[in-house]
Amino acid sequence: MNEKTEVKRWLVVPGDLITDQKVKLGPNVYVEGGKVYSKVVGLAEVKDGVARVIPLEGRYIPKEGDPVIGIVVDVKIPGYDLDLNSPYLGFLPNEELSEEATYGDVIIATVKNVDAVRNALLEKGNILRGGELITINPKKVPRVIGKKRSMLNLLQNLTGVTILVGANGRIWLYGKNVDVAKEAIFKIEQEAHTSGLTDRITKFIEEELHERGEGNQA
Amino acid sequence: MNEFIWEFTADRIRKLAMKGFRIDRRPLLKYRPISIETGIIYNADGSAIVNLGGTKVVAGVKFELGQPYPDTPDKGALLVDAEILPHSSPAVEPGPPDEDAIELARIIDRSIRESKAVDLTKLVIREGELVYLLFVDLRVLDNNGNIIDASSLAAAAALASAQIPKVEDDQIVRHEYERALELNEIPLYTTFAKIGKLIMVDPRIEEEHAMDARMSIATVDDGHVTAIQKGGNGSFTKGEIEFMIEEAIKKGRDLRKVVKEAVEDGRKN
Amino acid sequence: MSGEKVIRPDGRNYEDLRDTIRIEAGVLDRADGSAYLEWGTTMKLVKVDKSDGKKVEKWSETWPMIQTVEETKDGILVEFPKPLWHLIDELKSAEEVKEYLRGNKVYVAVYGPREPIPRHEASPYRAILRYRYTMSPFSVPERKSPKPSRRETEISMVSRLALERVLFLEEFPMTMIDVFAEVISADAGTRVAALTAASVALADAGIPMRDIPVALAVGRICTDEDATNCAIVADLNKKEEDMPGAVDMPMVIVPRKEEFTLLQMDGRVTKEELDQILDLGLKKAKELNKIQREALIRKYERVTENE
User: Fold this and answer.
1) Do domains C20-41+102-298 and C44-101 have the same CATH topology?
2) Looking at the partner chain, which of B41, B141, B177 has a beta carbon nearest the beta carbon of C138?
């Protein structure tokens, strides 16, 4: 009786009908005339009595608890304004950073809370140095991390690259095979909505490492 | 748009440049993939859309009638205009052309005018009274770097595939053409970016935010240079300039082949 | 003359949209959302001997969009619109030269939600929507000056109003959502072509919306200026706009609720005609909406079932 049932997910666009049953409303859906419709382009799902749509596009909106990678765009007396790849800014107080930062510095931090107009108050900041910074569609970040961090662990283990992922779509990579890890992440971004991705990514990384190992890094 | 957002990546690009590499591992003198389509605008007398590594520019050629300039009664008029559309990047605010758009229009104009690519004396209906006005309009749709070369390719392909409309009773007859527009030359720009001491061709947008200086050189087939524009606040040595001129001539020939192929394909399709 | 059938210049049925409508989502790299739309008549350029000249001339009288483009010493070049391509088979000497689209081509880019400019115009209750409709100088028969025209300003405003309520703007206070529509090729119905593409671009950007609004123009064409012999037609092309008694009504429809968020009219009609026009609009809205949906879905070719 405890069989795990497969939950059907299907691609929807705004205005598509999700269900006409009585359900609780999850994110990205709305009700009209007793029916539930999608607000966005995404994957619709009705699971455990909740109808929701997992969006495939959209900018990052700060949420409490999110790890984010920001860039210092203003240095103020009490702290720093960070660009979060979002229409909303993040603010990191001085005491949340163990060293002094300057314009253009890349900082990983956590969203402590969000004010009435969505600006984020940040905490536990750390400056990231060296390495490479890339930006992907923030809606694809969960796929890069994977269930229980499975995809992220796979990427790090296979390539040996340290990867820090911000919920806001910014990813910081450090290590020898950064190029391979980068390509793998962009591949995940393109194919995030498909199945069998884990196997394809494993294969991709193995092939790329092999190719680059043979040729030279130039 | 905050320049600081580019700083981290720009820093990485500069470090790689010190080792002689580009961020996308492209060879220093290699262009990104180029695709050109001509004859795409029904109401234009010549048109082309270019995709250079993601940078997209559309060019349209239109002939109108008007009075010649008083000091050149025996010549038609060439007018080049460009707009960097707000589509092309988050940094562009909608509004009248800014200094980048004006610079773009003027440098494309120079390359066409100074090379005498179009014989303006052949665009006269009645000397001193009525001439063809040759409009070349450029619209930048997507900026992934190097809008100068992309625009140059688009203008060249649009001109090379353009036709001159018939004139009856001093009026243009739309959609009826007299003859193809003959080009004496196909001037094309090759743009270089200098990052540290490294010189590379066809900069992508990230490289443009990291570069110290830029050099755009327009050449024609026989190896003459017909326009030069240096950008950025960094500097070049004489040796570097000579190197870039030689490369621009070579690249210009390669790019010219791509333009000619596109014009041929446009005729068939 | 009453009783004479009203014929569409390109041979279409009254209720047909133009033969070629294509939309591609996500075509611009830098924008948050984008769409490219082509909406028009595919023309075939055919080389024909003088021997078939009389036939072509007669057809041109019935269907003015069969047009002689060029006369050379060994023949004539004639343009045929797609609905009338079957006629080409009746010509003995026809040689196909090429195909091209005579119609509207629009690129729409969406940026947002993003930081508002100027800041003091932002609202703490909702995102501010900006819509900018512009036409390239080479898009129209007579080169258009790049300076913004009054027409472009009006269209921009009306378009913005048509979209505002469909979007969940209240989810993004203190921000701005920009819609930029550039018409690079024009042939009647540019504002609705731009809006149809804009809806797709907004969805492509992930902006939450109630539905994907559809835009089209429906109207009337007649055989006489006094409008005694007319037909209600969908999607007027340029030739039709210039016909006697022509009336053009651009409209934006939210398809699921069958509601109009934009309605404009140029002309003089009876109440009954207006009724028919609105009905035809609603009927065609679903067809267009399907094309919009498919553009978005095509971007994601394989659909996940589990993970």
Assistant:
1) no
2) B41
Among A71, A179, A218, beta carbon nearest to B8: A71
For chain B, report the end-to-end CA distance as a whole number of angstroms: 41
> What are the residue boundaries of the structural domains of chain C, listed by start?
20-41+102-298, 44-101
Residue A92 CB partners (closer than 8 Å, separation 6+): A70, A79, A80, A82, A107, A109, A122, A123, A125
- Break chain B down into helix, strand, coil percent, rounded to 5: 30, 35, 35
Asked if B21's CB is within 8 angstroms of A104's CB, the reply is: no
> Mapped to the 3 state alphabet, what secondary structure does A144-184 carry?
HHCHHHHHHHHHHHHHCCEEEECCCCEEEEECCCHHHHHHH
Chain C positions touching A14 (Cβ under 8 A) are 203, 208-212
Contact C30 B143 (CB under 8 A): yes
Mutation for B interface: C135, C143, C204, most B CBs within 10 A: C143
Residue C112 in tokens:
């947002």
Give the pLDDT score at A211. 86
Domain boundary among A90, A111, A128: A128
- Dist CA B113 CA C56 (whole Å): 43
Instruction: Write out chain A residues lying below 8 Å of C293, CB-based.
Output: 13
Q: Tell me, yes or no, whether A4 lies in a domain.
A: no
Looking at the domain assignment, is residue A61 inside a domain? no
Query: Is there a domain that residue A101 lies in?
Result: yes
Burial class (CB in 10 A: 0-12, 13-18, 19+), C147: exposed
Q: Say whether C105 sits in a helix, a strand or coil.
A: strand
B43 is in which domain, residue-wise? 4-268
Whether the CB of B25 is below 8 Å from some CB of chain A: the reply is: yes
What residue in A sits closest to B24 (Cα-Cα)?
A: A179
Q: Any chain C CB within 8 A of the CB of B143?
A: yes
Tokens 């988050």, residue located: B90
pLDDT digits (tens, 9 = 90+) for B87-130: 999 999 999 999 999 999 999 999 999 999 999 999 999 999 99
* Chain A residues close to C212, C-beta within 8 Å: 13-15
Asked if the Cβ–Cβ distance from B25 to A132 is below 8 Å, we say: no
In a domain, A1, yes or no: no
pTM over 0.90: yes
User: Pick from C124, C175, C302: which is nearest to A194 by CB?
Assistant: C302
A6/C305 touch (CB, cutoff 8 Å), yes or no: yes
Give the tens place of pLDDT for each residue, C67-115: 988 888 888 999 999 999 999 999 988 899 999 999 999 999 999 899 9
Residue with tokens 């060293």: A99
Select the CATH number that applies to the domain covering C20-41+102-298 from these four: 3.30.230.70, 3.40.50.1580, 3.30.70.860, 3.40.47.40: 3.30.230.70
Contact B174 C141 (CB under 8 A): yes
Q: What is the pLDDT of residue B166?
A: 95
A152-170 pLDDT, tens digit per residue, is 999 999 999 999 999 999 9
Are A176 and A139 members of one domain? yes
The answer to whether C306 contacts A15, with C-beta atoms less than 8 Å apart, is no
Question: Which stretches of C143-243 are DSSP H helices?
Answer: 150-164, 190-204, 238-241
Q: Residue A81 belongs to what domain range?
A: 67-128
* List of residues 6+ apart from C58 with CB closer than 8 A: none
